[in-house]
Amino acid sequence: MQGIVKRFFEGTDHELTVLKGFDLAIYPGEFVSIVGSSGSGKSTLMNIIGLLDRPTEGQYYLAGQDMGEADDDDMALLRSLSIGFVFQNFNLVGRTDAQKNVELPMMYAGVGRTERRARAAELLELVGVADRAHHQPNELSGGQKQRVAIARAMANDPDIILADEPTGALDTETGLLVMGLFHKLHREQGKTIVLITHNPELAEQTERILHMRDGLIAATDRGDTQ
């Protein structure tokens, strides 16, 4: 990213500049956290990284491709195949069991039924909830829901996982288990992981910590990954 600016309500009396111009590089295989208080701009930044929004100014290159030249269809395809999302509130589809929740991204990507069923079963096993495959979200604990959400994020074998406050709705012990899954994916599968959090203890578990303040990256620290 180079010179990233994000404004809302541009050209009106209510114009708001959330991201105020910064450069940022995240490298393949890194585990990075972005920390900051509410209103610092970290979620807006995550939306741009995840191709859910575009910067008002600046350039964003993803895997060498200039996203400023990508149309909405290009971005949707890249988002589907290259990026997995994990959210604080899980965002699982209600009245749909864990197996089918994990299959959904593959269905949208055109993966055949037999292949996506096998892949979903494999991912649920990976995150430790294979025995809950045919349970709906309202039959799962918070930790189980987040494990299913991580399996779903991995469905299309993305290069990048974006996790927005993934332990925010969980108790401390369950949150540590979920963080352990991210470490496993990073260590064993080489995934690039970007963790959005306001929790400094979680951030310390990552390789690099980006501190956001007032729409800028104010500082960068090394995490304690030993």
Please tell me about this protein's structure.
The strands form three sheets. Strands 7-8-9-3-10-11 form a six-stranded mixed β-sheet, with helices on both faces. It has a single domain (2-222), classed as P-loop containing nucleotide triphosphate hydrolases (Rossmann fold, 3-Layer(aba) Sandwich), CATH 3.40.50. The model has no long low-confidence stretch (mean pLDDT 94). The protein has 226 residues and is an alpha/beta fold. The longest helix is centred in the last third of the chain and has 18 residues, at 172-189. The protein contains seven helices and eleven strands.
Number of helices: 7
The CATH architecture would be 3-Layer(aba) Sandwich
Strand proportion, as a percent range, falls in 15-25%
Overall number of strands: 11
Q: How would you state the average pLDDT, rounded?
A: 94
Shape: globular
Query: What is the terminal separation in angstroms?
Result: 29 Å
Computed Rg:
18 Å
In short:
This protein is of the alpha/beta class and 226 residues long. The protein has one domain: Rossmann fold.
Set out the fold topology:
Layout: E1 2-8, E2 16-20, E3 31-35, H1 42-49, E4 57-59, E5 61-62, E6 65-66, H2 72-82, E7 83-87, H3 98-108, H4 113-126, H5 142-153, E8 160-164, H6 172-189, E9 192-197, H7 200-203, E10 208-213, E11 216-222
Parallel strand pairs: 3-9, 3-10, 7-8, 8-9
Antiparallel strand pairs: 1-2, 1-4, 5-6, 10-11
Domain ABC transporter: 1-225
Protein name: ABC transporter ATP-binding protein
InterPro entries: AAA+_ATPase, ABC_transporter-like_ATP-bd, ABC_transporter-like_CS, ABC_transpr_LolD-like, MacB-like_ATP-bd, P-loop_NTPase
